[in-house]
Amino acid sequence: MMELLNSPFMQRALIAAVLVGITAPAVGIYLVQRRQALMGDGIGHVAMTGVGLGFLLSTSPVWMATLVSVLGAVTMELIRWYGKTRGDIALAMLFYGGMAGGVLFINLAPGGSTANLNSYLFGSLSTVSQSDVWAIGLLAAFVLAVTVGLRRQLFAVSQDEEFARVTGLPVRALNLLTAVTAAVTVTVAMRVVGLLLVSALMVVPVAAAQQLSRSFALTFAIAVAIGVTVTLSGTVVTYYEDVPPGAVIVLFTIAIFIILTGLATPLAKRRARARAAAPAEGECGLDVPAAAKPQAGEVTA
Amino acid sequence: MEPVISLTKVTAELGSRPVLRGVDLAVHRGEVVALLGANGSGKSTAIRTIIGQVPLSGGSVEIFGTPRRRFRDWGRVGYVPQRTTAAGGVPATIREVVSSGRLSRTRFGILRRADREAVDRAIEAVGLADRAKDSVDALSGGQHQRVLIARALAADPELLIMDEPMAGVDIESQEILAATLREQVSAGASVLLVLHELGPLEPLIDRAVVLRDGCVVHDGPPPRAVGQHALPGHDHVHPHTAAEPVRTGLLS
Protein backbone atom coordinates (compact mmCIF):
# COMPACT_ATOMS: atom_id res chain seq x y z
CA MET A 1 0.00 0.00 0.00
CA MET A 2 2.83 2.40 0.93
CA GLU A 3 4.60 1.47 -2.27
CA LEU A 4 1.47 2.55 -4.14
CA LEU A 5 1.39 5.96 -2.46
CA ASN A 6 5.12 6.55 -2.98
CA SER A 7 4.97 6.21 -6.72
CA PRO A 8 4.80 9.76 -8.20
CA PHE A 9 2.63 8.69 -11.12
CA MET A 10 0.24 7.03 -8.71
CA GLN A 11 0.08 10.21 -6.61
CA ARG A 12 -0.87 12.19 -9.69
CA ALA A 13 -3.40 9.58 -10.70
CA LEU A 14 -5.03 9.57 -7.26
CA ILE A 15 -5.31 13.37 -7.19
CA ALA A 16 -6.91 13.35 -10.62
CA ALA A 17 -9.22 10.52 -9.55
CA VAL A 18 -10.48 12.40 -6.48
CA LEU A 19 -11.13 15.56 -8.51
CA VAL A 20 -13.07 13.61 -11.12
CA GLY A 21 -14.99 11.69 -8.46
CA ILE A 22 -16.17 14.99 -6.97
CA THR A 23 -16.88 17.02 -10.10
CA ALA A 24 -18.62 14.50 -12.37
CA PRO A 25 -21.60 13.79 -10.05
CA ALA A 26 -21.67 17.45 -8.93
CA VAL A 27 -22.54 18.52 -12.47
CA GLY A 28 -24.39 15.33 -13.31
CA ILE A 29 -27.03 15.93 -10.63
CA TYR A 30 -28.27 19.05 -12.44
CA LEU A 31 -28.33 17.23 -15.78
CA VAL A 32 -30.36 14.41 -14.22
CA GLN A 33 -32.66 16.94 -12.56
CA ARG A 34 -33.44 18.60 -15.90
CA ARG A 35 -33.76 15.18 -17.54
CA GLN A 36 -30.78 15.65 -19.85
CA ALA A 37 -28.86 12.73 -18.44
CA LEU A 38 -27.19 11.92 -21.74
CA MET A 39 -25.87 15.42 -22.39
CA GLY A 40 -22.48 14.42 -20.95
CA ASP A 41 -22.31 11.62 -23.50
CA GLY A 42 -22.92 14.07 -26.33
CA ILE A 43 -20.25 16.43 -25.08
CA GLY A 44 -17.85 13.50 -24.78
CA HIS A 45 -18.29 12.75 -28.46
CA VAL A 46 -17.73 16.37 -29.43
CA ALA A 47 -14.61 16.55 -27.25
CA MET A 48 -12.99 13.87 -29.46
CA THR A 49 -12.60 16.48 -32.19
CA GLY A 50 -10.73 18.62 -29.66
CA VAL A 51 -8.37 15.78 -28.79
CA GLY A 52 -7.75 15.13 -32.49
CA LEU A 53 -7.08 18.83 -33.11
CA GLY A 54 -4.71 18.89 -30.13
CA PHE A 55 -2.63 16.14 -31.74
CA LEU A 56 -2.78 17.72 -35.17
CA LEU A 57 -1.71 21.16 -33.95
CA SER A 58 0.72 19.70 -31.36
CA THR A 59 -0.99 21.59 -28.56
CA SER A 60 -2.27 20.13 -25.29
CA PRO A 61 -5.17 17.77 -26.04
CA VAL A 62 -6.72 18.63 -22.63
CA TRP A 63 -7.04 22.34 -23.36
CA MET A 64 -8.03 21.80 -26.98
CA ALA A 65 -10.71 19.32 -25.88
CA THR A 66 -11.94 21.85 -23.31
CA LEU A 67 -12.27 24.52 -25.98
CA VAL A 68 -14.06 22.32 -28.49
CA SER A 69 -16.40 20.70 -25.97
CA VAL A 70 -17.38 24.09 -24.52
CA LEU A 71 -18.21 25.24 -28.05
CA GLY A 72 -20.15 22.01 -28.63
CA ALA A 73 -22.09 22.37 -25.38
CA VAL A 74 -23.02 25.97 -26.16
CA THR A 75 -24.18 24.89 -29.62
CA MET A 76 -26.34 22.16 -28.06
CA GLU A 77 -27.90 24.72 -25.72
CA LEU A 78 -28.58 27.08 -28.64
CA ILE A 79 -30.23 24.25 -30.57
CA ARG A 80 -32.42 23.63 -27.54
CA TRP A 81 -33.57 27.29 -27.54
CA TYR A 82 -34.11 27.96 -31.17
CA GLY A 83 -34.54 24.67 -32.97
CA LYS A 84 -37.25 22.97 -31.01
CA THR A 85 -38.36 21.05 -34.06
CA ARG A 86 -36.05 18.20 -34.98
CA GLY A 87 -33.59 19.18 -32.27
CA ASP A 88 -32.71 15.51 -31.88
CA ILE A 89 -31.49 15.33 -35.47
CA ALA A 90 -29.28 18.39 -35.00
CA LEU A 91 -27.86 16.87 -31.83
CA ALA A 92 -27.17 13.57 -33.60
CA MET A 93 -25.20 15.41 -36.26
CA LEU A 94 -23.22 17.22 -33.59
CA PHE A 95 -22.41 14.00 -31.73
CA TYR A 96 -21.31 11.93 -34.69
CA GLY A 97 -19.68 14.88 -36.44
CA GLY A 98 -17.60 15.35 -33.29
CA MET A 99 -16.57 11.71 -33.22
CA ALA A 100 -15.78 11.63 -36.95
CA GLY A 101 -13.75 14.84 -36.63
CA GLY A 102 -11.69 13.34 -33.82
CA VAL A 103 -10.85 10.20 -35.80
CA LEU A 104 -10.04 12.24 -38.92
CA PHE A 105 -7.78 14.81 -37.24
CA ILE A 106 -5.84 12.26 -35.23
CA ASN A 107 -5.05 10.26 -38.36
CA LEU A 108 -3.96 13.44 -40.16
CA ALA A 109 -1.59 14.30 -37.29
CA PRO A 110 2.05 13.34 -37.97
CA GLY A 111 2.60 9.83 -36.62
CA GLY A 112 -0.93 9.81 -35.24
CA SER A 113 -3.34 6.91 -35.47
CA THR A 114 -6.65 5.93 -33.94
CA ALA A 115 -4.67 3.98 -31.32
CA ASN A 116 -3.59 7.30 -29.76
CA LEU A 117 -7.24 8.02 -29.14
CA ASN A 118 -7.64 4.96 -26.94
CA SER A 119 -6.30 6.50 -23.75
CA TYR A 120 -8.73 9.40 -24.17
CA LEU A 121 -11.70 7.17 -24.89
CA PHE A 122 -11.36 4.84 -21.91
CA GLY A 123 -8.97 6.70 -19.58
CA SER A 124 -5.30 6.13 -18.94
CA LEU A 125 -3.88 7.10 -15.58
CA SER A 126 -0.27 6.21 -16.32
CA THR A 127 -0.09 9.00 -18.88
CA VAL A 128 -1.35 11.73 -16.52
CA SER A 129 1.46 14.30 -16.44
CA GLN A 130 2.21 16.99 -13.89
CA SER A 131 0.80 19.66 -16.23
CA ASP A 132 -2.34 17.53 -16.71
CA VAL A 133 -2.83 17.52 -12.95
CA TRP A 134 -2.59 21.31 -12.88
CA ALA A 135 -5.06 21.65 -15.72
CA ILE A 136 -7.46 19.19 -14.08
CA GLY A 137 -7.13 20.99 -10.72
CA LEU A 138 -7.87 24.38 -12.23
CA LEU A 139 -10.87 23.13 -14.20
CA ALA A 140 -12.21 21.20 -11.21
CA ALA A 141 -12.03 24.37 -9.08
CA PHE A 142 -14.19 26.15 -11.66
CA VAL A 143 -16.71 23.29 -11.74
CA LEU A 144 -17.01 23.21 -7.95
CA ALA A 145 -17.36 26.98 -7.69
CA VAL A 146 -20.31 26.84 -10.08
CA THR A 147 -22.06 23.70 -8.86
CA VAL A 148 -21.79 24.51 -5.15
CA GLY A 149 -21.73 28.33 -5.24
CA LEU A 150 -24.77 28.62 -7.50
CA ARG A 151 -26.59 25.54 -6.21
CA ARG A 152 -29.84 27.35 -5.35
CA GLN A 153 -30.02 29.10 -8.71
CA LEU A 154 -29.12 25.96 -10.67
CA PHE A 155 -31.62 23.94 -8.59
CA ALA A 156 -34.41 26.41 -9.40
CA VAL A 157 -33.64 26.51 -13.12
CA SER A 158 -33.23 22.74 -13.42
CA GLN A 159 -36.41 22.06 -11.41
CA ASP A 160 -38.74 24.44 -13.27
CA GLU A 161 -37.36 26.74 -15.95
CA GLU A 162 -40.61 28.63 -16.46
CA PHE A 163 -40.95 29.43 -12.77
CA ALA A 164 -37.27 30.37 -12.48
CA ARG A 165 -37.78 33.03 -15.14
CA VAL A 166 -40.46 34.66 -12.98
CA THR A 167 -38.10 34.80 -9.99
CA GLY A 168 -35.95 37.07 -12.16
CA LEU A 169 -33.10 34.57 -12.55
CA PRO A 170 -31.06 34.91 -15.75
CA VAL A 171 -32.33 31.57 -17.02
CA ARG A 172 -30.51 31.56 -20.35
CA ALA A 173 -27.19 32.56 -18.79
CA LEU A 174 -27.57 29.83 -16.16
CA ASN A 175 -28.43 27.24 -18.82
CA LEU A 176 -25.33 28.21 -20.78
CA LEU A 177 -23.25 28.09 -17.63
CA THR A 178 -24.54 24.58 -16.89
CA ALA A 179 -23.63 23.49 -20.43
CA VAL A 180 -20.15 25.00 -20.18
CA THR A 181 -19.59 23.47 -16.75
CA ALA A 182 -20.66 20.07 -18.05
CA ALA A 183 -18.24 20.45 -20.96
CA VAL A 184 -15.39 21.37 -18.61
CA THR A 185 -16.22 18.36 -16.44
CA VAL A 186 -16.03 16.06 -19.42
CA THR A 187 -12.48 17.19 -20.14
CA VAL A 188 -11.55 16.99 -16.45
CA ALA A 189 -12.72 13.39 -16.42
CA MET A 190 -11.27 12.51 -19.82
CA ARG A 191 -7.89 11.22 -18.58
CA VAL A 192 -9.42 9.21 -15.72
CA VAL A 193 -12.60 7.59 -17.07
CA GLY A 194 -12.37 8.46 -20.74
CA LEU A 195 -14.69 10.36 -23.07
CA LEU A 196 -16.96 7.43 -23.85
CA LEU A 197 -17.55 6.52 -20.22
CA VAL A 198 -17.59 9.94 -18.53
CA SER A 199 -21.35 10.26 -18.79
CA ALA A 200 -21.78 7.17 -16.62
CA LEU A 201 -19.84 8.80 -13.80
CA MET A 202 -22.02 11.91 -14.10
CA VAL A 203 -25.32 10.04 -14.02
CA VAL A 204 -25.04 6.67 -12.25
CA PRO A 205 -23.80 7.96 -8.84
CA VAL A 206 -26.77 10.35 -8.81
CA ALA A 207 -29.17 7.56 -9.71
CA ALA A 208 -27.65 5.39 -6.96
CA ALA A 209 -27.82 8.20 -4.37
CA GLN A 210 -31.52 8.73 -5.17
CA GLN A 211 -32.26 5.27 -3.83
CA LEU A 212 -31.36 6.41 -0.33
CA SER A 213 -32.28 10.05 -0.23
CA ARG A 214 -35.41 12.17 -0.14
CA SER A 215 -33.71 15.57 -0.47
CA PHE A 216 -31.61 17.23 -3.14
CA ALA A 217 -28.86 18.21 -0.72
CA LEU A 218 -28.42 14.66 0.57
CA THR A 219 -28.56 13.22 -2.96
CA PHE A 220 -25.75 15.61 -3.92
CA ALA A 221 -23.60 14.58 -0.94
CA ILE A 222 -24.12 10.83 -1.41
CA ALA A 223 -23.49 11.06 -5.17
CA VAL A 224 -20.16 12.83 -4.62
CA ALA A 225 -19.20 10.29 -1.95
CA ILE A 226 -19.97 7.45 -4.37
CA GLY A 227 -18.03 9.24 -7.12
CA VAL A 228 -14.90 9.58 -5.00
CA THR A 229 -15.18 5.99 -3.75
CA VAL A 230 -15.36 4.48 -7.22
CA THR A 231 -12.69 6.65 -8.84
CA LEU A 232 -10.23 5.97 -6.01
CA SER A 233 -10.88 2.24 -5.90
CA GLY A 234 -10.79 2.03 -9.70
CA THR A 235 -7.44 3.81 -9.72
CA VAL A 236 -6.01 1.41 -7.14
CA VAL A 237 -7.18 -1.57 -9.22
CA THR A 238 -5.34 -0.27 -12.30
CA TYR A 239 -2.13 -0.17 -10.23
CA TYR A 240 -2.29 -3.94 -9.85
CA GLU A 241 -4.02 -4.89 -13.09
CA ASP A 242 -3.26 -3.38 -16.48
CA VAL A 243 -6.84 -2.45 -17.43
CA PRO A 244 -8.35 0.86 -18.53
CA PRO A 245 -9.48 2.74 -15.37
CA GLY A 246 -12.69 3.95 -17.00
CA ALA A 247 -14.04 0.44 -17.42
CA VAL A 248 -13.30 -0.53 -13.80
CA ILE A 249 -14.75 2.71 -12.42
CA VAL A 250 -17.97 2.47 -14.40
CA LEU A 251 -18.53 -1.18 -13.45
CA PHE A 252 -17.92 -0.33 -9.76
CA THR A 253 -20.46 2.50 -10.01
CA ILE A 254 -23.08 0.25 -11.53
CA ALA A 255 -22.40 -2.37 -8.82
CA ILE A 256 -23.01 0.29 -6.15
CA PHE A 257 -26.22 1.28 -7.89
CA ILE A 258 -27.45 -2.32 -7.85
CA ILE A 259 -26.50 -2.82 -4.19
CA LEU A 260 -28.18 0.42 -3.07
CA THR A 261 -31.30 -0.38 -5.06
CA GLY A 262 -31.45 -3.77 -3.36
CA LEU A 263 -31.06 -2.16 0.04
CA ALA A 264 -33.57 0.61 -0.66
CA THR A 265 -36.46 -1.55 -1.83
CA PRO A 266 -37.40 -2.91 1.63
CA LEU A 267 -36.90 0.62 3.01
CA ALA A 268 -39.35 2.10 0.52
CA LYS A 269 -41.85 -0.66 1.26
CA ARG A 270 -41.68 0.08 4.97
CA ARG A 271 -42.25 3.80 4.31
CA ALA A 272 -45.23 3.05 2.10
CA ARG A 273 -46.69 0.80 4.79
CA ALA A 274 -46.23 3.54 7.41
CA ARG A 275 -48.09 5.95 5.16
CA ALA A 276 -50.90 3.49 4.51
CA ALA A 277 -51.30 2.95 8.26
CA ALA A 278 -51.85 6.66 8.82
CA PRO A 279 -55.36 7.64 10.00
CA ALA A 280 -58.05 8.93 7.64
CA GLU A 281 -56.87 6.50 5.02
CA GLY A 282 -58.29 3.38 6.64
CA GLU A 283 -60.46 0.74 5.08
CA CYS A 284 -63.18 1.54 2.63
CA GLY A 285 -66.78 1.49 3.82
CA LEU A 286 -70.22 2.15 2.43
CA ASP A 287 -72.09 5.31 3.34
CA VAL A 288 -75.29 3.27 3.51
CA PRO A 289 -75.61 1.33 6.79
CA ALA A 290 -75.22 -2.41 6.41
CA ALA A 291 -78.78 -3.03 7.75
CA ALA A 292 -80.25 -1.39 4.67
CA LYS A 293 -78.70 -4.04 2.45
CA PRO A 294 -81.17 -6.64 1.23
CA GLN A 295 -80.85 -9.96 3.00
CA ALA A 296 -79.88 -12.99 1.00
CA GLY A 297 -83.29 -14.54 1.52
CA GLU A 298 -85.14 -11.50 0.21
CA VAL A 299 -83.25 -11.63 -3.06
CA THR A 300 -84.38 -15.10 -3.87
CA ALA A 301 -87.90 -14.45 -2.67
CA MET B 1 -55.97 53.66 -10.01
CA GLU B 2 -52.90 52.20 -11.66
CA PRO B 3 -53.45 48.61 -12.77
CA VAL B 4 -51.01 45.97 -11.50
CA ILE B 5 -51.30 44.13 -14.81
CA SER B 6 -52.32 45.72 -18.04
CA LEU B 7 -52.48 44.08 -21.46
CA THR B 8 -53.20 46.38 -24.39
CA LYS B 9 -54.13 44.96 -27.81
CA VAL B 10 -51.90 41.97 -27.19
CA THR B 11 -51.37 39.59 -30.09
CA ALA B 12 -49.27 36.43 -29.97
CA GLU B 13 -48.60 33.43 -32.14
CA LEU B 14 -47.59 29.89 -31.35
CA GLY B 15 -45.74 28.71 -34.41
CA SER B 16 -47.67 30.45 -37.18
CA ARG B 17 -51.09 30.05 -35.51
CA PRO B 18 -52.49 33.26 -34.01
CA VAL B 19 -53.49 32.48 -30.41
CA LEU B 20 -54.18 35.97 -29.07
CA ARG B 21 -55.85 38.42 -31.43
CA GLY B 22 -55.88 41.74 -29.64
CA VAL B 23 -56.52 41.06 -25.97
CA ASP B 24 -57.16 43.94 -23.55
CA LEU B 25 -57.04 43.02 -19.90
CA ALA B 26 -56.39 44.93 -16.69
CA VAL B 27 -56.09 43.78 -13.09
CA HIS B 28 -56.36 46.55 -10.50
CA ARG B 29 -54.85 46.59 -7.04
CA GLY B 30 -56.64 44.23 -4.66
CA GLU B 31 -58.75 42.74 -7.41
CA VAL B 32 -59.26 39.01 -8.09
CA VAL B 33 -59.74 38.41 -11.79
CA ALA B 34 -60.53 35.01 -13.27
CA LEU B 35 -59.56 34.29 -16.85
CA LEU B 36 -62.03 31.79 -18.26
CA GLY B 37 -62.51 30.06 -21.58
CA ALA B 38 -62.59 26.70 -23.31
CA ASN B 39 -59.47 24.68 -24.09
CA GLY B 40 -57.45 26.47 -26.77
CA SER B 41 -59.10 29.85 -26.18
CA GLY B 42 -55.74 31.43 -25.30
CA LYS B 43 -56.02 31.67 -21.48
CA SER B 44 -52.67 30.12 -20.71
CA THR B 45 -50.96 31.95 -23.56
CA ALA B 46 -52.26 35.25 -22.21
CA ILE B 47 -50.73 34.44 -18.82
CA ARG B 48 -47.50 33.36 -20.40
CA THR B 49 -47.12 36.62 -22.32
CA ILE B 50 -47.30 38.42 -18.97
CA ILE B 51 -44.39 36.48 -17.50
CA GLY B 52 -42.38 36.64 -20.73
CA GLN B 53 -42.56 32.96 -21.59
CA VAL B 54 -44.39 33.66 -24.87
CA PRO B 55 -43.18 36.62 -26.99
CA LEU B 56 -45.65 39.29 -28.10
CA SER B 57 -46.17 39.92 -31.80
CA GLY B 58 -48.04 43.15 -31.07
CA GLY B 59 -49.47 45.29 -28.29
CA SER B 60 -47.95 45.83 -24.87
CA VAL B 61 -47.84 44.28 -21.42
CA GLU B 62 -47.20 46.32 -18.28
CA ILE B 63 -46.61 44.99 -14.78
CA PHE B 64 -46.99 47.53 -11.94
CA GLY B 65 -46.91 50.24 -14.61
CA THR B 66 -43.56 49.13 -16.06
CA PRO B 67 -43.26 47.64 -19.55
CA ARG B 68 -42.64 43.91 -19.12
CA ARG B 69 -39.25 44.00 -20.84
CA ARG B 70 -37.95 46.52 -18.33
CA PHE B 71 -39.67 44.98 -15.31
CA ARG B 72 -37.12 43.62 -12.82
CA ASP B 73 -38.95 43.62 -9.50
CA TRP B 74 -39.99 39.96 -9.68
CA GLY B 75 -40.14 39.60 -5.91
CA ARG B 76 -43.52 41.35 -6.09
CA VAL B 77 -44.92 38.61 -8.36
CA GLY B 78 -45.81 35.06 -7.36
CA TYR B 79 -46.35 32.65 -10.24
CA VAL B 80 -47.99 29.23 -10.26
CA PRO B 81 -47.38 27.51 -13.60
CA GLN B 82 -49.81 24.98 -15.03
CA ARG B 83 -48.25 21.74 -13.94
CA THR B 84 -49.33 18.45 -12.51
CA THR B 85 -46.12 17.80 -10.57
CA ALA B 86 -43.63 19.77 -8.51
CA ALA B 87 -40.99 17.05 -8.92
CA GLY B 88 -37.88 17.09 -11.09
CA GLY B 89 -35.49 14.31 -12.07
CA VAL B 90 -33.82 14.25 -8.64
CA PRO B 91 -35.61 13.91 -5.27
CA ALA B 92 -36.22 17.21 -3.49
CA THR B 93 -38.01 18.04 -0.26
CA ILE B 94 -40.99 20.35 -0.05
CA ARG B 95 -38.80 22.93 1.70
CA GLU B 96 -36.16 22.76 -1.05
CA VAL B 97 -38.74 23.34 -3.78
CA VAL B 98 -40.52 26.14 -1.89
CA SER B 99 -37.18 27.81 -1.10
CA SER B 100 -36.53 28.43 -4.78
CA GLY B 101 -39.57 30.74 -4.71
CA ARG B 102 -37.70 32.99 -2.31
CA LEU B 103 -34.73 33.55 -4.65
CA SER B 104 -36.34 36.67 -6.12
CA ARG B 105 -36.01 38.32 -2.71
CA THR B 106 -32.39 37.32 -2.07
CA ARG B 107 -29.03 38.56 -3.22
CA PHE B 108 -26.86 35.90 -4.87
CA GLY B 109 -29.25 33.20 -3.66
CA ILE B 110 -28.21 33.40 -0.02
CA LEU B 111 -31.14 32.60 2.26
CA ARG B 112 -31.03 34.59 5.49
CA ARG B 113 -33.10 33.93 8.57
CA ALA B 114 -35.98 36.12 7.42
CA ASP B 115 -36.00 34.24 4.12
CA ARG B 116 -36.14 30.86 5.83
CA GLU B 117 -39.02 32.11 7.99
CA ALA B 118 -40.89 33.28 4.89
CA VAL B 119 -40.42 29.82 3.37
CA ASP B 120 -41.78 28.18 6.54
CA ARG B 121 -44.76 30.55 6.56
CA ALA B 122 -45.56 29.69 2.95
CA ILE B 123 -45.43 25.94 3.67
CA GLU B 124 -47.61 26.49 6.74
CA ALA B 125 -50.13 28.49 4.69
CA VAL B 126 -50.87 25.51 2.44
CA GLY B 127 -51.07 23.13 5.39
CA LEU B 128 -47.94 21.08 4.69
CA ALA B 129 -45.82 22.17 7.67
CA ASP B 130 -45.59 18.64 9.08
CA ARG B 131 -44.34 17.31 5.74
CA ALA B 132 -41.76 20.00 4.91
CA LYS B 133 -38.92 17.48 4.96
CA ASP B 134 -40.70 14.90 2.83
CA SER B 135 -39.83 14.36 -0.80
CA VAL B 136 -42.29 15.93 -3.22
CA ASP B 137 -42.31 12.57 -5.04
CA ALA B 138 -44.42 11.14 -2.21
CA LEU B 139 -47.24 13.68 -2.57
CA SER B 140 -50.69 13.44 -4.15
CA GLY B 141 -51.74 15.64 -7.08
CA GLY B 142 -53.47 18.16 -4.85
CA GLN B 143 -50.47 18.34 -2.54
CA HIS B 144 -48.18 18.99 -5.52
CA GLN B 145 -50.37 21.94 -6.41
CA ARG B 146 -50.16 23.19 -2.81
CA VAL B 147 -46.35 23.01 -3.00
CA LEU B 148 -46.37 25.04 -6.22
CA ILE B 149 -48.56 27.66 -4.56
CA ALA B 150 -46.38 27.76 -1.45
CA ARG B 151 -43.40 28.33 -3.75
CA ALA B 152 -45.18 31.35 -5.25
CA LEU B 153 -46.10 32.66 -1.77
CA ALA B 154 -42.54 32.35 -0.44
CA ALA B 155 -41.58 35.70 -1.95
CA ASP B 156 -44.48 37.45 -0.12
CA PRO B 157 -45.83 38.67 -3.48
CA GLU B 158 -48.30 41.52 -3.99
CA LEU B 159 -49.55 39.94 -7.20
CA LEU B 160 -50.35 36.28 -7.73
CA ILE B 161 -50.57 34.85 -11.24
CA MET B 162 -51.93 31.31 -11.31
CA ASP B 163 -52.48 29.03 -14.28
CA GLU B 164 -55.23 26.49 -13.46
CA PRO B 165 -54.35 26.07 -9.78
CA MET B 166 -57.36 23.77 -9.28
CA ALA B 167 -56.60 21.29 -12.07
CA GLY B 168 -56.55 17.74 -10.75
CA VAL B 169 -56.91 18.80 -7.12
CA ASP B 170 -58.84 16.77 -4.51
CA ILE B 171 -61.56 18.38 -2.36
CA GLU B 172 -59.39 18.77 0.74
CA SER B 173 -56.68 20.55 -1.22
CA GLN B 174 -59.26 22.70 -3.04
CA GLU B 175 -60.59 23.93 0.28
CA ILE B 176 -57.11 24.66 1.60
CA LEU B 177 -56.22 26.50 -1.60
CA ALA B 178 -59.41 28.57 -1.44
CA ALA B 179 -58.66 29.48 2.19
CA THR B 180 -55.06 30.38 1.35
CA LEU B 181 -56.19 32.58 -1.48
CA ARG B 182 -58.82 34.25 0.72
CA GLU B 183 -56.10 35.15 3.24
CA GLN B 184 -53.84 36.56 0.53
CA VAL B 185 -56.67 38.66 -0.86
CA SER B 186 -57.70 40.01 2.52
CA ALA B 187 -54.04 40.96 3.08
CA GLY B 188 -54.26 43.09 -0.06
CA ALA B 189 -52.86 40.84 -2.79
CA SER B 190 -54.07 41.15 -6.37
CA VAL B 191 -54.77 37.90 -8.21
CA LEU B 192 -55.05 36.88 -11.83
CA LEU B 193 -55.94 33.24 -12.28
CA VAL B 194 -56.80 30.98 -15.15
CA LEU B 195 -59.68 28.69 -14.31
CA HIS B 196 -61.61 26.07 -16.17
CA GLU B 197 -64.64 26.75 -14.02
CA LEU B 198 -65.22 28.97 -11.02
CA GLY B 199 -65.75 26.17 -8.49
CA PRO B 200 -64.99 26.80 -4.81
CA LEU B 201 -63.19 30.06 -5.64
CA GLU B 202 -66.40 31.64 -6.94
CA PRO B 203 -67.10 33.85 -3.87
CA LEU B 204 -63.61 35.35 -4.08
CA ILE B 205 -63.77 36.46 -7.67
CA ASP B 206 -64.45 40.13 -8.41
CA ARG B 207 -64.43 39.97 -12.15
CA ALA B 208 -64.28 37.39 -14.90
CA VAL B 209 -62.71 37.79 -18.31
CA VAL B 210 -63.79 35.19 -20.83
CA LEU B 211 -61.67 34.42 -23.87
CA ARG B 212 -62.85 32.74 -27.05
CA ASP B 213 -60.51 32.12 -29.99
CA GLY B 214 -57.98 34.62 -28.66
CA CYS B 215 -60.46 37.46 -28.15
CA VAL B 216 -62.10 38.82 -25.00
CA VAL B 217 -65.85 38.09 -25.25
CA HIS B 218 -66.87 38.99 -21.70
CA ASP B 219 -65.37 41.29 -19.08
CA GLY B 220 -67.48 41.84 -16.00
CA PRO B 221 -69.19 40.00 -13.17
CA PRO B 222 -68.50 36.24 -13.11
CA PRO B 223 -70.93 34.33 -15.33
CA ARG B 224 -73.74 32.65 -13.38
CA ALA B 225 -73.62 28.91 -13.21
CA VAL B 226 -76.36 27.25 -15.26
CA GLY B 227 -77.84 23.78 -15.63
CA GLN B 228 -76.69 21.16 -13.16
CA HIS B 229 -73.86 23.46 -12.10
CA ALA B 230 -76.38 25.79 -10.49
CA LEU B 231 -77.95 23.06 -8.36
CA PRO B 232 -77.28 23.36 -4.65
CA GLY B 233 -74.78 20.77 -3.58
CA HIS B 234 -73.04 20.55 -6.92
CA ASP B 235 -69.48 20.75 -5.80
CA HIS B 236 -67.71 21.46 -9.10
CA VAL B 237 -65.17 18.78 -8.33
CA HIS B 238 -63.62 16.96 -11.23
CA PRO B 239 -60.82 15.03 -9.67
CA HIS B 240 -59.62 13.49 -12.93
CA THR B 241 -59.17 16.70 -14.89
CA ALA B 242 -55.51 15.92 -15.47
CA ALA B 243 -56.35 12.82 -17.47
CA GLU B 244 -59.46 13.79 -19.41
CA PRO B 245 -60.91 17.00 -20.80
CA VAL B 246 -63.79 18.32 -18.74
CA ARG B 247 -66.98 19.48 -20.39
CA THR B 248 -68.59 21.66 -17.81
CA GLY B 249 -71.29 23.08 -20.05
CA LEU B 250 -70.52 26.41 -18.43
CA LEU B 251 -68.41 27.89 -21.16
CA SER B 252 -68.27 25.46 -24.02
TrEMBL record, chain A:
Its main location: membrane. Pfam families: ABC-3. It comes from the Bacteria. It comes from Streptomyces violascens. The chain crosses the membrane at residues 12-31, 63-82, 89-113, 133-151, 188-209, 216-240, 246-265. Keywords: Membrane, Transmembrane, Transmembrane helix, Transport. This is ABC transporter. The keyword Coiled coil does not apply. It is a multi-pass membrane protein. It is found in: Cell membrane; Membrane. InterPro entries: ABC_BtuC-like, ABC_TroCD. Belongs to the ABC-3 integral membrane protein family.
UniProtKB/TrEMBL annotation, chain B:
InterPro entries: AAA+_ATPase (IPR003593), ABC_transporter-like_ATP-bd (IPR003439), Metal_Ion_Import_ABC (IPR050153), P-loop_NTPase (IPR027417). Gene3D superfamilies: P-loop containing nucleotide triphosphate hydrolases (3.40.50.300). Residues 5-238 form the ABC transporter domain. Residues 223-252 are annotated as: Disordered. The keyword Transferase does not apply. SUPFAM superfamilies: P-loop containing nucleoside triphosphate hydrolases. The keyword Ubl conjugation does not apply. Belongs to the ABC transporter superfamily. PANTHER family: IRON TRANSPORT SYSTEM ATP-BINDING PROTEIN HI_0361-RELATED, METAL TRANSPORT SYSTEM ATP-BINDING PROTEIN TM_0124-RELATED. This is ABC transporter. The lineage of its organism: Bacteria, Bacillati, Actinomycetota, Actinomycetes, Kitasatosporales.
